[in-house]
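Dear colleague,

Thank you for sharing your sequence with our group. We've completed the structure prediction you requested, and as agreed, I am returning the results in plain text so they can be pasted directly into your records. Please verify that the sequence below matches your submission; if there's any discrepancy, let me know and we will rerun it promptly.
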Amino acid sequence: MSDIIVPGFKGSELIAELSKAFEAYTPEERAKLIKQVNGVFQFVLKANGKEEIFTVDVKKEGKVVRGKGNVKADAILTLNDADFVSLAEGKLNGQKAYMSGKLKVKGQIMLAMSIKPAGAKL
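Please find the predicted structure tokens below.
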């Protein structure tokens, strides 16, 4: 079991899948992705009165860690776990989630809004 997966957080399973995808990239693919995205995203997921943080570094190393990691986040996205899953699956529109208060963003909001659903590569 991945150290990224947290019981009670379905979103952590999706983030673990993203981590696997990054690990499968060749160095060239990873470099291309980093050049395209050039950002560090921190996801703060909430479920059942608990909070988990995941950092997706697509700026320096192209990797995912549980926790804040050692790279400062460019965008911090806070939302409940179920909404994160809906967002990742393309069932929830990011802009609508933000406007309705389901998604809170600190930092570079335009970078945060550039995130694609799981069906499309980040």
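Summary note from our side: The longest helix spans residues 10-24.

Kind regards,
the structure core
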